[in-house]
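Changelog-adjacent note: as of this version, every example in the card shows the full chain rather than a window. The one below runs 132 residues end to end.
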Amino acid sequence: MTAETLSYCYIERQHADDVAKICTAIGEAMKRIEAHTVLLGRKTALERVASAILDLSKRFSRPQRAGSESRVFNLYLGRGDLADWLGLSLETVSRCFTKLKRAQLIDFDEPEIVTLLNLPVLQAIADGAASV
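Full-length structure tokens:
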């Protein structure tokens, strides 16, 4: 293998088992990058926001009670950062959040704690198969 760096780096020998884990993690990261590229190029604003909410909820979900059908997560990105990430304006992201809340698909009392109330419908919106 060869590698080229643009800054100083530290090279360390890895055990074969660790290399497999690293390759798996890189593969997952590449899948997320590809999905984000599609998101930016082909989805509507509401589809982008629903996709982002679902993606972030998978990564940052909080433990829930057994049998709970909702998913709660910390939204570490502010609305402005989320807008930048999705290629939207701050106002558009806020309108999409309000629209999803009015449709009772999500809930939030505090802006940084989001509860997903209806995962199947949110997934359908993210996939472009449903609208609000």
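Structural remarks: Strands lie at 71-74, 106-107, 113-116.
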